[in-house]
Amino acid sequence: MKSVGVAPSIKEVRMFDHPAPSISQDRQIKVRTLDVGICGTDREICTFVYGAPPSGSNYLVLGHEALGQVTEIGAGVTRFKVGDLVVPSVRRPCTDAICIPCAQDRQDFCSTWKFTERGINQYHGYMTESFVDHEKYFTFVPPELRDVAVLVEPLTVAEKGLAQVWKTQQRLPWGKSSEVDAPRGQGLNAVVLGAGPVGILGAMALKVNGFKTFVYSRSRKPNFKADLVESIGAEYISSEEMSADQLAAHVGSIDLIYEAVGVPGITFDVLRVLGINGVYVMTGIPAPKAPIPVAASEIMRNVVLKNQAVVGTVNADGDAFASAIRDLGTFHKQWPEPLRRLITGRHKPENYQELLLGKAVGIKNVISFE
Ligand code: BGC
After folding, report:
1. Do 298 and 160 share a structural domain?
2. Within a domain: residue 232?
3. Ligand 1 pocket, residue 116 CB under 6 Å
4. Are residues 163 and 144 part of one domain?
């Protein structure tokens, strides 16, 4: 089969002839690849600072954001039928008996760090014509979401992030507002750092949860990302035009910051202005770099005196995938055009070079295997 991958030992990014998979266990399904999204992690793997091939292979098939269609099911499959649209998850459990999270299907919290990740870490990904896996690693996609469901995996980052926020803020009176009908973010301010796919999808999720939402990103207005952000009713603010302190003065109390930029300087600068009892969610994974100066005493004073919580979140569990499909359905009804405009290009697998190694352009670029 056609596939796009990397061979780190010889520092090559290219197409590989990959063997076609077949079902070998009762509860596996075989899926024909439709769309695969490209993200910063893929581009980073292509610089060879991250990612690893499976043991025994000298290459890794890339791709962890996928949408596919079921073409075959094992004898014991109960959740899917041939023809269903599905989205696969990324992380697979370690086999260490001491790892309680993995034993409970919560490998997103794997405690040994011996997990694998499809398309990233020791397990081939989805940038190929078909793939096979246990049915428990898939989520059903309603047919009306066919064109946008490739956005599910990046949206799961926000969904797991929000789940962490609700848990963390149960310490506060407003954290308990899930018991009443009002959306949990009502009356609260959220700032999203970054206007890439994870940032904009996060802003959409915050909006549907009732937060007054601001997106803080570098480029000055007007630009197409700012237009998209404003078309969903969030406010776009350029960091070139407003400092972090001015941002805080403009927003008022910042109850939640959702970092989706992966840039340490801005991440820590904005941490300085998190509000009283606020929560800060980090999702970016910067490449290793030299230390930078940060306002450490100001940050530490604030974290303590203002009861702040800083939480990191990686990967996503089955519940986050289910919430992502549900929220994507809401976005689709509420903002059909902005949602479609998040996908800025659909390309043939043969165009991998410009997409993975060229200048990052647009918002979400997709490789289509159809
Ligand atoms: C993926 C996650 C993964 C993380 C770390 C991200 O790009 O979305 O599923 O856990 O990279 O490898």
Report:
1. yes
2. yes
3. no
4. no
